[in-house]
Amino acid sequence: MKLLIVDDSNVIRRAIQRAIGEPDYEIRTAGNGAEAINVFDEFGPEVVTMDITMPEMDGLMCVDMILQRNPGTRILIISALADASTAVEAVKRGAQGFLLKPFTAETLNTELVELFRD
């Protein structure tokens, strides 16, 4: 399965990769929404983890653009923004899940499994 990790923090991108630790995933990363769109177009991932607050293009706008390209893409928002309205907005735009930072490997992997139960 192809996974795109989008976060402006290299530390968080690496933490997500380590937490997944699954050889079943082919993983690419992007440091902002604009870069994510380019990687998405080249790579064609089935799953995207997305931060919200990033330079150049925020995660919510990036969700919109990804889902315009492929409405079947599964998106998990991973954000430090604990605001309930942010989670609601992300889901309204088409994200399937919302995970707060800091996260554990267990909660991340549980959320990724849940993406495919719908």
Give a structural overview.
Strands 2-1-3-4-5 form a five-stranded parallel beta sheet, sandwiched between helices. The protein contains five helices and five strands; from the N terminus they run E-H-E-H-E-H-E-H-E-H. The radius of gyration is 13 Å and the shape is globular. The protein has one domain (2-114): Response regulator (Rossmann fold, 3-Layer(aba) Sandwich), CATH 3.40.50. It has helices at 10-20, 33-43, 59-69, 84-92, 105-114, and strands at 2-6, 26-30, 47-50, 74-79, 97-100. It is α/β, with parallel strands linked by helices.
The tally of structural domains comes to: 1
Superfamily (CATH H level) name: Response regulator
Q: What are the secondary-structure elements, in order, as H or E?
A: EHEHEHEHEH
Structural class: alpha/beta
